[in-house]
Write a structure and sequence with these properties.
The protein is of the alpha/beta class and about 500 residues long. It folds into 2 domains: about 280 residues, Aldehyde Dehydrogenase, Chain A, domain 1 (3-Layer(aba) Sandwich); about 190 residues, Aldehyde Dehydrogenase, Chain A, domain 2. About 40% of the residues lie in helices and about 20% in strands. Strand 1 and strand 2 form a beta hairpin.
């Protein structure tokens, strides 16, 4: 990364909370450090928020809601389009900022900026398409109809792995629907979200409509719990772990908030013996190694039919061995550091456990300490089995375990043998098999001969313990709206 590019990223850095259209220090005055995972250096110290700051953000959002919901849809759309234009204009600087605080290679970070911006553009258009219905007359003299209205104040809580895209695809539909927002980004990557809020403010989002507070891992429960207890906050939208999602569901029950939960995944990737193996290898590389395997839709279990197992493994290993690991500052890097030491420790634990249970390390399988404390080699494990921890737990790193299977129904059963159901992938050229397997897989998102699934035009979300609700697409606006039924009598 050039010095000029890093300087442009640093020009976007804000370190205070954004409440009611103003940058404010936390009420405690405390701060916590945001570090570069590649080097460990401190990038900035941001506000350490607590319950009082969360309540102040909710106060601002509640005050702003009546005026914002009353704006015309085309007025909200115009503001979102200006925000989109500002994001696109700052793509290079925002990409550099993502690389600095999250660690992903610069080209991939810039891709995230474009991806996140696409949600803002999409929902700018969707803001003008919030239709109601006229219900066919059931009784003479009565007219029945429905309208859709914004739910109210929305609390958005986002993860560290996509610090721009995840918050953009929550804020954009909320604003499009006429809701106001209080948000808290992940403690590891708040700088991108803070920069995004500044650009939204510059684009004309009125004071109080969008508010954001930051908090460390230890302080986050106090901050979020204030919103859970606040009856004015009518919706929670969260991307993160299933454990935290269940806590949010339990604690929001007291005020019966609307919930959108995009939670953990344990995605299967099935390669049948009639698959195009080269295409399957490339699809797996795209699905698994994006962001170093730190995505919720990464394949965690790769099932390969026994007749093609050795051939597929050899081709995959050859490609994985070529992947280049390094900091985002190196333009040839394809995989950057993991987000923190906890992440690397979990990856190492999973690999060690797999080897203890009979797995063979075909590629990688080690920390890359010469590069820094947070690097782990892209890894392929052969002879994986269900007894291994990585079969039931999300690794969230660049590790591919290969499982062998014989029959189609065996593969589907193993793929579905998980409490999670976010994404699933399979490769086959048999049209009848494609119909059978796509219907049988228990997942909210299915990739058929395709490893790159995400699009602003498609619904993103899971089933089972991967959560509920959908983000993106025309369905993504519904989670921010309530349906009101109107019955007018006396017309006969």
């Amino acid at each position: 990364m050039s010095l000029d590019l890093e300087a442009s990223a640093r020009a976007l850095i804000r370190t205070d909370n954004f409440i009611g259209g103003q940058w404010l220090a936390s009420q405690s005055g405390e701060r916590f450090a945001v570090t570069d995972p590649a080097t460990g250096r401190t990038l900035a110290e941001v506000a350490q928020s607590g319950a009082a700051d969360a309540r102040a953000a909710a106060d601002a959002a509640s005050r702003a809601f009546p005026a914002w919901r009353a704006t015309l849809p085309k007025e909200r759309a115009a503001i979102l389009r200006r925000w989109h234009a500002a994001i696109v204009a700052n793509e290079a600087a925002l990409g550099a900022l993502i690389s600095l605080e999250q660690g992903k290679p610069l080209a991939e970070a810039r891709g995230e900026v474009a991806y996140g911006a696409s949600y803002v553009a999409w929902f700018a258009d969707e803001a003008t398409r919030i239709y109601g219905d006229v219900i066919p007359t059931q009784q003479r003299g009565k007219r029945m109809s429905t309208v859709k209205e914004p739910v109210g104040v929305v609390a958005a809580i986002t993860p560290w792995n996509f610090p721009l895209a995840m918050i953009a695809r929550k804020i954009a539909p909320a604003l499009a629907a006429g809701c106001t927002v209080v948000a808290k980004p992940a403690e590891d990557t708040p700088l991108t979200a803070l920069a995004l809020v500044q650009l939204a403010h510059d684009a004309g989002v009125p004071p109080g409509v969008l508010n954001l507070v930051t908090a460390s891992r230890e302080a986050t429960p106090h901050t979020v719990d204030a919103w859970l207890a606040d009856s004015r906050v009518r919706k929670i939208t969260f991307t993160g772990s299933t454990q935290v999602g269940k806590h949010l569901a339990r604690e929001s029950a007291g005020t019966l908030k609307k919930l959108s939960l995009e939670l953990g995944g344990n995605a299967p990737f099935i390669v049948f013996d009639d698959a195009d193996l080269d295409a399957a290898v490339e699809g797996l590389l795209a699905a698994k190694f994006r962001n170093g395997g730190q995505t919720c839709v990464c394949p965690n279990r790769v099932y390969v039919q026994r007749d093609v197992y050795e051939t597929f493994a050899a081709r995959l290993c050859a490609r994985v061995a070529e992947l280049r690991v390094g900091p985002a500052s190196d333009p040839v890097s394809q995989i950057g550091p993991m987000i923190n030491a906890r992440a690397v420790d979990k990856i190492a634990r999973h690999v060690d456990d797999a080897v203890e249970h009979g797995a063979t390390v075909l590629v990688g399988g080690k920390r890359l300490e010469a590069l820094g404390p947070h690097y782990y080699a892209p890894t392929v494990l052969g002879h994986a089995s269900r007894e291994m921890a990585l079969c039931g737990e999300e690794t969230f790193g660049p590790v591919v375990p290969l499982f062998a299977f014989d029959q189609e129904d065996e593969a589907v059963t193993m793929a579905n043998d998980t409490p999670f159901g976010l994404a699933a992938y399979f490769y086959s050229q048999d049209l009848r098999r494609i119909e059978r397997v796509s219907a049988a897989l228990e997942a909210g998102i299915v990739g058929i001969n395709e490893g790159a699934l995400a699009s602003e035009a498609a619904p993103f979300g899971g089933v089972k313990e991967s959560g509920y609700g959908r983000e993106g697409s025309r369905y993504g606006l519904d989670d921010y709206l309530s349906i009101k039924y109107l019955c007018q009598g006396g017309l006969a």
